[in-house]
Amino acid sequence: MGKSPSTLTSNTLKTYTSAWKGFVRFCEQHEVSSLPAGRSTVARYLRQRAFAGKSASAIRVDYSAIKAAHARANGAGPHQRIEDPTEDDLVRTTMRDLTYKVRERRRPVNWINLLTQEEFEAIKATAYTPRVGKTGRTETKEHALKRGKVDVALIAVMRDCTLCRYEAIRITWGAVVWRPDGTALLNVAPRKDNEIGYTGYLTKDAAEALKAIRSLQARKGMVDDSRERIFSMTTKSISNRIAAACRMAGL
Question: pLDDT band at 1, cuts 50/70/90?
Fold first, then answer.
């Protein structure tokens, strides 16, 4: 998606410089490295830009500016080369998904899609704590563990693949493609006949969370659950569960 820094015009360089400064400010605010930048940092920044209402072309400029900055750093001298995060599967998939959603005028992300890793860890740390229900009764430890595993998996998948609630309740186990490195791909079906589906990237956190809620028989290949919905709940239930998980985590 990006050209070599030496072939860029002066106007393009100015545009990239401005876009790069925006990314650097984002990294400073979150106390993370901008050069080299981590793949999750770049993916989160692109999501935030989409959430702010930026156009698909503006998001592509951000992506290209980050790519150009890393290319310049690699060409600056004989020092050890740094890894370009824009070449990572997570960033590429995020970029493709966001630009498609923005172009199709779909709401690209919601708050849960912008969770930082620290916020996600806080949710995981409190997800299995027994809660008091509407009836005033406290969950058993067994029920809290089962419910917590589903909450963690739901939030992880929605965060990684920028899913809306309607998309989340429709995904099936057959849509998950497990990868040897512990990550996974998620084939998200189109919402309407005039739309196209897309493939989301699931980090190890999300893939492990999904495996934790999949039945033992299915994991061993004893049961075909390919058509079974992963999260068999309503969109309202998703909102309530996410809200409860965030409250418990102090978010």
Answer: very low
pLDDT of residue 223: 86
Question: Would you say 188 and 167 are in contact if contact means Cβ atoms under 8 Å apart?
Answer: yes
Residue 146 has pLDDT above 90, yes or no: yes
* Integer Cα distance of 197 and 62 in angstroms: 24
CATH superfamily for domain 5-103: Tyrosine recombinase, N-terminal domain (1.10.150.130)
- Alpha-carbon span 238 to 245, nearest angstrom: 11
| 133: its two tokens | 């229900």
DSSP annotation of 105 reads T
All CATH 1.10.150.130 domain ranges of the chain, comma separated, are 5-103
Of 69, 15, 77, the C-alpha closest to 41 is 69
CATH fold group of domain 111-248: hpI Integrase; Chain A (1.10.443)
Other C-beta atoms within 10 Å of 78: how many? 5
Q: Is the per-residue pLDDT at 5 higher than 60?
A: no
Mean residue pLDDT of the chain comes to 83
On whether the CB atoms of residues 44 and 116 are closer than 8 A, the answer is yes
